[in-house]
Amino acid sequence: MNKVLLIDDDAELTTLLQEYLVEEGYEVVTDTDGRAAIAAAAGNTVDIIVLDIMMPRMNGIEVLQRIRKLSQVPVLMLTARGDDVDRISGLNLGADDYVPKPCSPGELAARLRAILRRAGQPAAGATTDTIRAGKLVIHPSSRIAEWRGETLDLTGTEFSLIEVLARSAGQLVSKQDISKRAFGKPLTPFDRRIDVHISSVRQKLGLREDGQSWIQSVRGQGYQLLVD
């Protein structure tokens, strides 16, 4: 089991990411102080570190700089969306990859698997890295979805949504659960993002022989991916 150290002072996001990664087969330790990451690197006690850049006391760039003086443990940076300066600085200092915030737990898990594979470690969930739901095949690590044998042209958000539904194929998934697992945050009132993106995915899947959508909705509750 791969051990992940997640360093972020956003308690809500940390809890969501931790719950998801544990379900994916990781052992997850969390902290709000970058000094914990430095200590873990020095003691070689974790397999990979997820490190937020914007933190009090010591920012992620400084933490990464100190880590690289001690260890080559894989580090994935969490960056502010659109902040190219921090991303470039992190990569130049030896970060293995970065994910912009807010990030979906599914994308984070996929990036972790890819980094661990490159590092020569068996990634958590690697033996079950393909999700099959009827005519749909999901490859989380490469973030590729196949429908009836052909690759679906999906945006990153659409992939995250359909991955969540595929993992619970045939079952109703609440909008709140979809939002937490796909977007990494709770659903807010009047937020219609899920409905808009689901509508786009429905169009790409087409209709069933009975004329119904492959993704069924239960008004006010959530969505269900049909498998037959």
Automatic annotation (TrEMBL):
The modification 4-aspartylphosphate is found at residue 52. Pfam families: Response_reg, Trans_reg_C. One of its GO terms (biological process) is regulation of DNA-templated transcription. The keyword Cytoplasm applies. GO terms for molecular function: phosphorelay response regulator activity; transcription cis-regulatory region binding. SUPFAM superfamilies: CheY-like. PROSITE patterns: OMPR_PHOB, RESPONSE_REGULATORY. Its main location: cytoplasm. InterPro entries: CheY-like_superfamily (IPR011006), OmpR/PhoB-type_DNA-bd (IPR001867), Sig_transdc_resp-reg_receiver (IPR001789), WalR-like (IPR039420), WH-like_DNA-bd_sf (IPR036388). Signal peptide: none annotated. Keywords: Cytoplasm, DNA-binding, Phosphoprotein, Transcription, Transcription regulation, Two-component regulatory system. Residues 128-227 bind DNA. Residues 128-227 form the OmpR/PhoB-type domain. GO terms for cellular component: cytosol; protein-DNA complex. PANTHER family: REGULATOR OF RPOS, TRANSCRIPTIONAL REGULATORY PROTEIN CPXR. This is Two-component system OmpR family response regulator. It comes from Rhizobium esperanzae. The lineage of its organism: Bacteria, Pseudomonadati, Pseudomonadota, Alphaproteobacteria, Hyphomicrobiales.
